[in-house]
TrEMBL record:
Keywords: ATP-binding, Kinase, Nucleotide-binding, Rhamnose metabolism, Transferase. Belongs to the FGGY kinase family. This is Carbohydrate kinase, FGGY family protein. InterPro entries: ATPase_NBD, FGGY_C, FGGY_Carb_Kinase, FGGY_N, Rhamnulokinase. Residues 39-277 form the Carbohydrate kinase FGGY N-terminal domain. Residues 291-482 form the Carbohydrate kinase FGGY C-terminal domain. SUPFAM superfamilies: Actin-like ATPase domain (SSF53067). It comes from the Bacteria. One of its GO terms (molecular function) is ATP binding. One of its GO terms (biological process) is rhamnose catabolic process.
Length: 531
């Protein structure tokens, strides 16, 4: 064993020295190579970004080179993504890279949210803009369950039943006699659709396919029998392709418009959560750990080689989704910092333009564990004023009503920490193994108050970082596809080398026990997640 010193606060990692493929040692543990320029196109439901990663074999550095707004469009009672707007901004990211004069681009990869898709006709053309899952209803889901009960479907696909699942979206179109699905020759999930626009190559990347409630992890193929029973045309299903491989290169027209060569495209963890999970800086794969990709939503789970099929998984809203290394992420989608984001918007509309730092400071000054909410309760979806809705929930459940911005923010953060504890305890019960550490990646790592509350509430040490989890996982999976990184262990070693990671040790855990019992008493609705 050699001591590899990482940019982590207060600890030193002990790990094996495992050189990356294609590198030579030049003294000590250092590996030298020419810099690789990699481009991550990371797409979220509110914005998209082009992130340049510079990889030297040991470390990767990030630079945002393009950002744009993204939003769905409502038209005629339907909700659509402006997919051509997104594609035009992807091309703009290529152009901005070209203007930087920073050397050639070695590769690019695309990650995005799950469940949504586009349809392509027999001529390779898009059949209308991509629909958003926001239009699908509980009635659409129930129509499927009349043919295939929800629990049966879970044991076929490993996915719990939520209206946003791709399967329910497609069956709605079948019931409507929609000409789009009747004329479709291919269904491509959002990142696969955009990769097709860039390269002309069609595929269904593994991790994004596992979000659809249409993939059968036992057969390692689409759940074709059920798809046929529902009348969904089987011809639209594309071959499932593994992440960490190359899948074509920029079309001549796209490359020429950006003054680039025909840059190769890598299949990354096309589901953004899969890319974020790849960047979890685990130092020992034998450690029993959980991860949380924390941001607008909190994707909270573990990693396994095989899916977990138990009634308790389905009843508690857990799903098995794919990992970059070809395994699974049994996880729960939890409403995350969206609650705080919505409060901040409302306070700003009312003339209080508070920074997140100011909100956190106000929360720290407020009394602890005074008021609690269930973050996943249906009361908090589709509301016009989040602070008012939180106050109403607390009043209805017989708790003190938050009166100030600090009290409201503290209520949200403490409730999220308690929800994380609830999730950890369910995962421990399902697997029969204790979770020893929690790794938090993503934008939520910047909320130090929530990180410490999570450690205190769960009684688990917390490691937070990197902030740009999905982008880091995307970029380093590109390096894997190019043969510069051999496996997920080497990928995570680069993460540990490249970013400052913060440690939070549990303190005052006992005071959270009563609060946890109170929260369980007031919780009364299954979560309604949105990815």
């Amino acid at each position: 064993m050699t001591a590899l010193t990482c940019r982590r606060q207060r600890i030193k990692i002990e790990t094996k020295e495992t050189p990356c493929r294609g590198f030579t040692h030049t003294g000590g543990n250092k590996m030298k190579r020419n810099q690789l320029n990699l481009l991550a196109l990371d797409l979220g439901s509110s914005n998209g970004r082009g992130i340049l990663g510079r990889f030297d074999g040991e470390k990767i550095t990030l630079e945002e080179i393009h950002r744009f707004e993204n939003s769905y469009i409502e038209m005629g009672g339907m909700v659509y993504w402006d997919i051509l707007h997104i594609f035009s901004n992807i091309k703009r990211a290529f152009q901005k890279f070209s203007l930087m004069n920073t050397g050639g681009l070695a590769c690019f990869g695309i990650d995005a949210w799950g469940n949504d898709y586009g349809l392509i006709d027999k001529n390779g053309r898009l059949l209308s803009d991509a629909r958003s899952a926001r239009h699908t209803t509980a009635e659409d889901m129930e129509r499927v369950h009349q043919i295939v009960p929800g629990l049966e479907l879970f044991y076929q696909t490993g996915n719990s039943s939520y209206t946003i699942n791709t399967l329910y979206q497609l069956y709605r179109r079948v019931c409507e006699g929609d000409p789009g699905i009747e004329n479709a020759n291919a269904m491509l999930m959002i990142p696969d659709l955009l990769a097709f626009f860039c390269t002309g190559e069609m595929h269904s990347e593994y991790t994004i396919s596992t979000t659809t409630a249409m993939y059968n992890p036992t057969l390692k193929d689409w759940n074709r029998e059920t798809i046929r029973r529902l009348g969904i045309p089987e011809r639209i299903l594309q071959p499932i392709a593994a992440p960490g491989t190359l899948c074509g290169e920029l079309l001549p027209s796209v490359a020429a418009a950006a003054s680039l060569k025909r840059v190769p495209c890598a299949l990354v963890g096309s589901h953004d959560t899969a890319s974020a999970a790849a960047a979890v800086p685990v130092s020992d794969n034998k450690e029993n750990y959980a991860f949380c990709s924390s941001g607008t939503w909190s994707l909270f789970g573990i990693e396994t080689d095989t899916p977990i099929f138990q009634d308790e998984m389905y009843e508690n809203g857990f799903s098995n989704e794919g990992t970059v290394q070809g395994g699974f992420r049994p996880l729960k989608n939890i409403t995350g910092l969206w609650l705080l984001q919505e409060c901040r918007k409302e306070w700003r509309r009312n003339g209080k333009d508070l920074s997140y730092g100011e909100i956190t400071a106000a929360a720290q000054r407020s009394a602890p564990l005074r008021s609690l909410i269930d973050p996943g309760h249906s009361d908090f979806f589709g509301v016009t004023s989040m602070p008012a809705q939180i106050a109403q929930y607390c009043k209805r459940t017989g708790q003190p009503v938050p009166r100030t911005e600090g009290e409201t923010a503290r209520c949200i953060c403490e409730s999220l920490a308690l929800k994380y504890r609830w999730t950890i305890e369910r995962l421990e019960a399902i697997t029969g193994r204790p979770i020893e550490r929690l790794y938090i990646v993503g934008g939520g790592t910047q909320n130090k108050l929530l990180n410490q509350m999570t450690a205190d509430c769960t009684g688990k040490p917390v490691t937070a970082g990197p902030v740009e989890g999905a982008c880091v996982g995307n970029l380093l999976t590109q390096a894997m596809a190019l043969g510069e990184i051999s496996n997920i262990g080497e990928l995570r070693e680069v993460v540990r080398n490249s970013f400052i990671l913060e440690e939070y040790e549990p303190k005052q855990s006992a005071m959270w026990n009563d609060a946890f019992e109170r929260m369980e008493a007031i919780s009364g609705s299954r979560d309604l997640p949105e990815k």
